[in-house]
Amino acid sequence: MSLVVRARRVVLPDGERAAAVHTAGGVVTAVTGFDDVPAGAVTLADDEVLLPGLVDSHVHVNEPGRTEWEGFATATRAAAAGGVTTIVDMPLNSVPATTTVEALRVKREVAAGQIAVDVAFWGGAVPGNAGELRAMHEAGVVGFKCFLLDSGVPEFPPLDDAGLRAALAELATFDGLLIAHAEDEAVIAAAPEPAGASYAAFLTSRPPAAEETAIGRLVAATRDTGARSHVVHLADGDALPLLRAARASGVRVTVETCPHYLTFAAEDVPDGDTAYKCCPPIRESSHREALWGALTAGDVDLVVSDHSPCTPELKRLDVGDFGLAWGGIAGLQVALPAVWTGARARGVPLSQVVCWMSAAPARLAGLPGKGAIVVGRDADLVAFAPDEPFTVGRLEHRNPVTPYAGRELTGVVRRTWLRGREADGSPLGRLLDRGDR
Ligand SMILES: [Zn+2]
């Protein structure tokens, strides 16, 4: 199996240029000049750019157990349609939660044979399972997710400070990675309860201080244990100085944000439209602009979807109540155009977006075969038309609810290849372990 794709614009690690990407057996074998191609090479259209396949390290698939929310077949079809060739599945919202080696085995078995892109797994760190972490690490999970407050599902309880430190201390013995949902329980308990259709009231119920307090706890525990940690879905621009200072002082903490925090702003969220409910919440535009600035400055490392769908019933669109609705935004398939639309408007180059959404998440998840068009890595490629506008319509994920519905975005994914084969939604994906190449 060999595929050669050439384009006038190819995003390579050292910049963008005209090139031909040669592949064989699913791996990149050479990157040559545009004209140096055999007969039968694919030539992209003049308005298309060749990108490495994206890596989305924050996807909640929910299968088995809550497959009616989202499953492996539908999530990975959405990924392929959106130019995402690798997803890393979150350990919660499925049943079982991925908090034991046995649960990991169950999830891998369920995923096998129905995935349209490659899939790796996060494990979970919950109270009482510190002794299980090393075995899960050796079984191939890319790292461990924890919550610092109620996760919303009973089978995935949060870590208190002692539990957080115990998990980090254990992970430090094998340089494992802890990723944390950083909102503080006590700060949120002291805030007004969310209720009703008012988005402003929901925002007040989850203040920025909840993120700052939890991130402060995580940073302190990371510093004291010498471990590695990562803040998922940062929404709070006011937490950036604290993270910047921690990183400057040598604390090994990385940070991600999500397309919805870079696209939407609280001022524009319609009351009653619970498709926008997620935790931490979409904050005011000042936070959005601070996150863009931090990405550009290198203070935020990556952008991943936090695709977290549920059934329309659980979104409570019937009553539009932000207190009752499940929190989570479905956006895996439109992550690239959403971020690119925002980047383009701010003068950020496409190659930078590709770093945030491919190379950086591949590095976070320890997947050396992914994240760039480089000889020896997987031939995961995307033909992207960066100047073509479109309106978000029906998406491939299981439940159609998304705040992106009807939104005008710029940048269309025209074709995706997974290990040299057209990723057309058929089950070409592989299960990946940390370190696979
Ligand atoms: Zn999540």
From TrEMBL:
Q: Which GO terms describe its biological process?
A: allantoin catabolic process; purine nucleobase catabolic process
Q: Which Gene Ontology cellular component terms are annotated? A: cytoplasm
Q: Which residues form the Amidohydrolase-related domain?
A: 49-421
The record's section on InterPro entries has: Allantoinase, Amidohydro-rel, DHOase/Allantoinase_Hydrolase, Dihydroorotase_CS, Metal-dep_hydrolase_composite, Metal_Hydrolase
- The answer to keyword Ribosomal protein applying to this record is no
Gene3D superfamilies the record matches? Metal-dependent hydrolases
Note the superkingdom of the native organism: Bacteria
Query: Pathway membership of this protein?
Result: Nitrogen metabolism; (S)-allantoin degradation; allantoate from (S)-allantoin: step 1/1
Tell me the subunit arrangement: Homotetramer.
Q: Which family, according to the similarity comment?
A: Belongs to the metallo-dependent hydrolases superfamily. DHOase family. Class I DHOase subfamily. Belongs to the metallo-dependent hydrolases superfamily. Allantoinase family.
What's the protein called, per UniProt? allantoinase
Species source reads Geodermatophilus amargosae
Q: Which lineage ranks, top first, belong to the organism behind this chain?
A: Bacteria, Bacillati, Actinomycetota, Actinomycetes, Geodermatophilales
